[in-house]
Amino acid sequence: MSETEPIVSAGAVIALRLFDVAYAIDLARAERLWSAQARASSRLRLTATPPKAMAFGVPPLALALDPVALDLGGQSVSAAVSARLYDFGAISIALRVPVAEMPWSGYVRRLNQVEQMAGGSTEAGPWARLLARVRDPLLAALERPEAQSRVEEDYLIGLVQSFDQPMSAAALQQRIDLVPLLSGEQRALSESARQDVLRQRFSYYTDDLVVLTWDRAFIYEPRGDSDVMDVVEVANAQLLEMRYYDELLDAELPRMYDLVESARRATSVLASRRFAELARGLYTLVAEVTELTERVDNALQVTEDVYLARIYAAALDLFRVRSVSAAVDRKLSIIRDTYTALHDEASARRAELLELLITVLIVIEVVLAVIPLVHR
Fold it and tell me: Quick one: CA torsion of 109, 239, 145, 68, rounded to 10 degrees?
């Protein structure tokens, strides 16, 4: 490590907080509602990547909000605020704290200060006010809105656009210890822990660097491209939605077992109808969750950009998106199997009822035929 501490000439600390707010969002209607308030909005696209290489399935709606003042280390700092709406029901809010002419050690402290301010509960920081500022004017565009977001995700990004002197990615890693920034730890980590923190490193040019961890990322990007941040945000949004549906199905499975057991204990002639109604309810649940999870899976489509594809795949692995998605698929499979069993049982009950009715009709017909013979 060099004795001369680098100066961050231009950069930012970006805190992301993502919320599940509805079953789905009508982005076109939300854009009209937002524009009606004379506020700026746009459809997001990757700035430095051709659409044929990587593109959004449905481009999120980006909204501009008024800046907010944050108390960081006893100092009032103005932070830019933006929001993005995803069609699968998620809202992402970003706080961007600018950094200029700050020594590296001060930059690390500033990032930790932002984390302390923004990393707590929604009620403790500015998030509840910002979410209400975005959601309330757009309620008419939300399909089946949640009264309160049950699932949230947060992420912290340290962005450096330039140092006080030009620096390659290799020189940066020699002069700067990124571990304290990425881990948030002030004590020295073991060598194995350090290697784990720095494991997901990526560079495309000689003068850019991306390092991803579970809850933080460092991005050195002199050209000002935002594609990496956009990809990381989409991966967080996918994790948010998969967690939501995983928890939804966790709650639904015990309820489903109770309803199935109750239906099976029923001995009335309406038991087959109860089976059929329960099966229809499960089919509707499976159809809705499958539709939304497919929409989430297709949020970002990667074709030709190998570099961004590697970063995107690493983010999905780090955030355990695939494992949560696999858990959702397993639970959906259980519900599908239950639906099939209920449908078959309902059909069997109807067949039994039909056989009973036929038998009763035959008996009645025999009795009606015998009665005149008895009276002769």
Answer: 10
Q: How far apart are CA 355 and CA 359, in angstroms?
A: 6
Distance CA 264, CA 99 (A): 65
Residue 101: count of CB within 10 angstroms of its CB: 10
Q: What is the pTM of this model?
A: 0.83
* Per-range mean pLDDT, top range of 247-251, 275-279, 366-370: 247-251
In angstroms, the Cα distances linking 22 to 42, 148, 292 are: 21, 10, 11
Q: Which helix (H) or strand (E) holds 129?
A: helix 127-135
- pLDDT at residue number 91: 96
**Pair of tokens at residue 116:** 């302390």
> Is 221 found in the same domain as 243?
no
* Residues 177 and 77 occupy one common structural domain: yes
Number of domains in the chain: 2
Helix (H) or strand (E) holding 15: strand 7-20
- The pair phi, psi for residue 141, each rounded to 5°, is -95, -5
Q: Alpha-carbon distance 204 to 319, whole Å?
A: 22
Query: Is the model's pLDDT at 316 over the cut of 80?
Result: yes
